[in-house]
Amino acid sequence: MYVAVKGGEKAIDNAHTWLGEIRRGDTDIAALSVAQIRNQLSLAVDRVMAEGSLFDPDLAALAIKQSRGDLIEAIFLIRAYRTTLPRFGASAPIKTENMACMRRISATFKDAPGGQVLGPTFDYTHRLLDFKLAADGEVGKAAKVEADANEAKPRITEFLNQEGLIQAEPTVDATPPDLTREPMELPASRALRLQALARGDEGFLLGMGYSTQRGYGRNHAFVGELRIGEVAVELDIPELGFAVEIADIEVSECETVNQFAGSKTEPPQFTRGYGLVFGQSERKAISMALLDRSLRWKELGEDSAGSPAQDEEFVLYHCDNIQATGFVEHIKLPHYVDFQAELELVRTLRKEATEAKAQREAMQ
Amino acid sequence: MSTEYNFAYLDEQTKRMIRRALLKGVAIPGYQVPFASREMPMPYGWGTGGVQVTAACLVPDDTLKVIDQGADDTTNAVSIRKFFEKTGGVAVTEETANATVIQTRHRIPERELSENQIIVYQVPIPEPLRFLEPRETETRKMHALEEYGLMHVKLYEDIARHGHIATSYAYPVMIEGRYVMDPSPIPKFDNPKMEMPALQLFGAGREQRIYAVPPYTKVVSLDFEDYPFEKGGASQDCGLCGAQDSYLDEMIMDDSGARMFVCSDTDYCRERCEAGHIGEMGVPLTEDAA
């Protein structure tokens, strides 16, 4: 006697309750507050904002708490929430040349107007576990010189531009397409590509960028400039007839300067790659710039080496971690029906193969 | 019903965008219409395309049925049904005959659908040529030029190698003599049902595609004159209701690997059991049986 399995609904409810319990963990240990996550895990918050495509540190911190620290799950929560938000308008392009930089470095010039500003970086830390942190160690106070707010930090690449040594960026007045409101169609404009990369998975971009350095579509990049800091967001208010500042957001921007021997259509000159990410993520900004540059081969009249990082369709269709994680993980959902169909097929094929073999042997 | 969201979750603008894509799909049967798929509160791969199509079709008077693998009580079917109960407050049912909209993953119900019904398929990979040509830019061209030679070669090679067309689910179909279409991963057993009185809508969320097969449209499973399409199916009867014409799930019953075959369409099986049909391993229904 057999009774068909029922009870999916109850199982789901119980699973969710259990998940909540596990998320909270041992109740003898104080719960993490959203403010603590926002302040002390700020790079995780930044990543969730960047790949979630929503600048809201409080919501990102909440998502991290809710997802038990699974950042892709947190990004998913933010994406799903973002879809429901009404749109009031589009901001004016941010002016990163006016950024209030907390970090600004160039790997191409030892010094330049505005100077090199190291900022709060892991770069020269010795990666030794700091056991004092485990025991609530107090932190020192960094000596800060009040920066001259008016000291301009012009773009490093502009100095090359003045000499005509670097390819000029074409300016376009067209409204960029919106990846989240229109289906992606290829070939994509550079604006659309950058949009996809900006919300793309950090790990995917890192791996793809790395592959260009190892010879899969090498493009000889130097970090012309990397800057991190706050920029003002301005929104045109039609009733007022002018733009007003509505927020300051933190972004990381990377411009690479790439060697270029020239092509059939372009003279020898330097070319550029560009990366821009919400919050502090220079790893992603640099990777994005490498990838942006390698995807520009067609526009610069280069030959494609057929490398993955030069393949727009490959990169754009696979860089989104929410799409990727969904489809990869969905194979754990029931596939009884398809599997049953495959079972029948394999049984038939095997039966025929066995019979044919037996027949051959009988004839020998 | 939750009032924090619009009826059936999506805002009206988004529904309008989806309905336009649906209308285009109905106008060009089998053609994959790009649409601006939204990020839904369930993961890609869980049926976000189907959910968006259902959301765009539902009206408050509708009665919704959701199945996964033919069953109403599989976890994802339960979850999607709950989602629309919560965000749309629509009536739900497990009875195929009573539903006005049926969202499905991997099956077409055994009972014939009517002109008053819409069936919405969840589609993972809408492109039937995808595994022959990974580039979307290429496959779109192939459809435009009706260049389906590659597909026929693939089917031919199957026969040359295995003596059969070695595709058992997501078996490609030709719609109204024009577009080769992926019927979603339904077993090929279900393919012949696709010429039906109900409207069939297909949603692929991650891949941002919608397509449709209007009622009574000609749907032909690809084959060759000397190797005609065979729908296959189990040689057993359903262990519970004894059905001989239904698609069966295979279950492992004990450590020695004893098998039982049961209707994958749980509602069909229930209906038959209630009508007094009893399979080899079934028990007669009594009044007090739960």
Using only C-alpha atoms, the radius of gyration of chain A works out to 26 Å
Rounded to the nearest angstrom, the distance between the terminal CA atoms of chain B is 29 Å
Separation, N- and C-terminal Cα atoms of chain A: 48 Å
Q: Can you summarize the main beta sheet of chain A?
A: 4 strands, antiparallel
**Strand ordering within the main sheet of chain B:** 1-9-8-5-4-2-3
Can you offer a commentary on this structure?
The complex is a heterodimer of chains A (364) and B (290). Helices cover 41% and strands 13% of the residues of chain A. Chain A is built from 13 helices and 4 strands. In chain A, helix 3 packs across helix 5 (71-83). Chain B has 290 residues and is an alpha/beta fold. In chain B, 25% of the residues lie in helices and 17% in strands. The chains are: A alpha+beta (364), B alpha/beta (290). At the A-B interface, helix 1, helix 5, helix 12 and helix 13 of A face helix 3 and strand 11 of B.
Short description:
The complex is a heterodimer of chains A (364) and B (290). With 364 residues, chain A is of the alpha+beta class.
Which key features would you list for this structure?
heterodimer; A: 364 residues; alpha+beta; 4-stranded antiparallel β-sheet; 4 strands; globular; B: 290 residues; alpha/beta; 7-stranded mixed β-sheet; 3-stranded antiparallel β-sheet
